[in-house]
Amino acid sequence: MVIPSWNSEALLRRCLDSLGEQGVELELLVVDNGSGDGSVALLEREGVPHLALPRNAGFAAAVNLGVSRTRSPQVLVLNADTVLEPGAVGALAAALAADPALGGVQPRLLQLGPEPADVATADLYSAGQALTRDGRALEVGAGEPQRPQWLRRREVFGVCGAACLLRRQLFDQLGGYDERYFAFYEDVDLNLRAQIAGWGFAYEPDAVVWHVGNASWQVGFERPGAERHRVPVSGIAHLSEHAILVGYGRVGGAIGPVLRKQNLPLVVIERDHLMLASAQAAGIPTLVGDASLPDVLSAAGVGRARLLAVATPDGFQARRIVEIARQLNPHIEIVARTHSAAEFSALESLGAGAAFVGHRRLLPTARCSPRDFNTSAHHPRSASAITSFGC
């Protein structure tokens, strides 16, 4: 077990205390990255095996050094801001031993906040990593409430470096984490290289670990957000009752201001980098990816959102997005771009409890008002809805 630590004295104590109820023998090594607080004194006082580095060498380098100084055939990489539930390490070890094709397994990572929380009701931090078609990585289920799908074992693209059990064979074969990633994204890089080399990864929900997330960065930098370069979903993870806009082209660019005028927090999902830049210039939180992938919609907080506006011109993709969104959030209102009555019928057939059909097309200038979303006729089946606007 390798725990890299930097200025994490209070958090590190909780992490170490949670290791006593794992039911398995642990080869522990804490690598302190030149902390300026009392971390090293704590380790010395408690007799915890550790290496004290003179400066911050980065997360990747600290883990690599720790792995080189240990001998266990399995390597548990653990952040200092984690707390393990009893038996978590044993569950991970059993899952890894059961399948020789696996290079690593990840626990069910739950969000650890300032207030006590229950395992069953806490929000997810990660149920494994996913990779979008344009190369961006996501923590699956980040910020989502725990749903039945997060309680089932499954194969994943990769494992989160905050808490994962890796085979030493994989780590040695790949040369460990790429130390050019000082902090963040080193796990994504290792996952990708492992997949190319033929290894697989799995998510083991019976192993539960709590994680604060970015705790050292919050301590170590005046503006911690400026130093982060992992996929920017953390600012989205705390949104609720918000709107998600898929596409920020001509139609999406018109809808965005309307939603913001209604005081709805807004997140844009877009694959085109020019359109993405336009949304960012307007001060809108963005997510790069394909919204027809469940992991991308989950990262945008679809389970907590009030409204989903699908402005993509691709009718097939729009139907796929609507179908997935309805599965993830049965009560969300969905506004979908259509070009014909047949397209709208296809969207409605996906299980919308109610349907709205806009009476007017958007003007050629692609400007609309809140009335464009409301001047419509209810279908009586339920309160949830699909709204269609022509363009």
What does this structure look like?
This protein is of the alpha/beta class. It has two domains: 2-217, Spore Coat Polysaccharide Biosynthesis Protein SpsA, Chain A (Alpha-Beta Complex); 243-390, Rossmann fold (3-Layer(aba) Sandwich), CATH 3.40.50.720. Helices cover 29% and strands 24% of the residues. It has helices spanning 9-17, 39-46, 59-68, 88-98, 168-174, 186-196, 215-220, 250-261, 273-281, 294-299, 315-328, 341-348, 371-374; strands at residues 2-5, 29-33, 50-53, 74-78, 82-84, 102-111, 124-126, 129-131, 137-139, 154-156, 163-167, 200-211, 243-246, 266-270, 286-288, 307-310, 333-338, 355-361, 386-390. The longest helix has 14 residues, at 315-328. The protein is elongated, with a radius of gyration of 23 Å. The model is unreliable at 214-235 and 351-391 (pLDDT under 50).
**Poorly predicted sequence stretches spanning 5 or more consecutive residues:** 214-235, 351-391
Quick check: average pLDDT? 80
Tell the overall outline.
elongated
The fraction of residues assigned to DSSP E strands is: 15-25%
> Largest sheet, if any?
7 strands, mixed
Distance separating the two termini: 57 Å
| Oligomer type | single chain
Helix content: 25-40%
Determine and state the CATH class of the largest domain: Alpha Beta
CATH third-tier fold name of the largest domain: Spore Coat Polysaccharide Biosynthesis Protein SpsA, Chain A
Query: What's the number of structural domains?
Result: 2
Question: Would you spell out the secondary-structure blueprint of this structure?
Answer:
Elements: E1 2-5, H1 9-17, E2 29-33, H2 39-46, E3 50-53, H3 59-68, E4 74-78, E5 82-84, H4 88-98, E6 102-111, E7 124-126, E8 129-131, E9 137-139, E10 154-156, E11 163-167, H5 168-174, H6 186-196, E12 200-211, H7 215-220, E13 243-246, H8 250-261, E14 266-270, H9 273-281, E15 286-288, H10 294-299, E16 307-310, H11 315-328, E17 333-338, H12 341-348, E18 355-361, H13 371-374, E19 386-390
Parallel strand pairs: 1-2, 2-3, 6-12, 13-14, 13-16, 14-15, 16-17, 17-19, 18-19
Antiparallel strand pairs: 4-11, 5-12, 6-7, 6-11, 8-9, 10-12
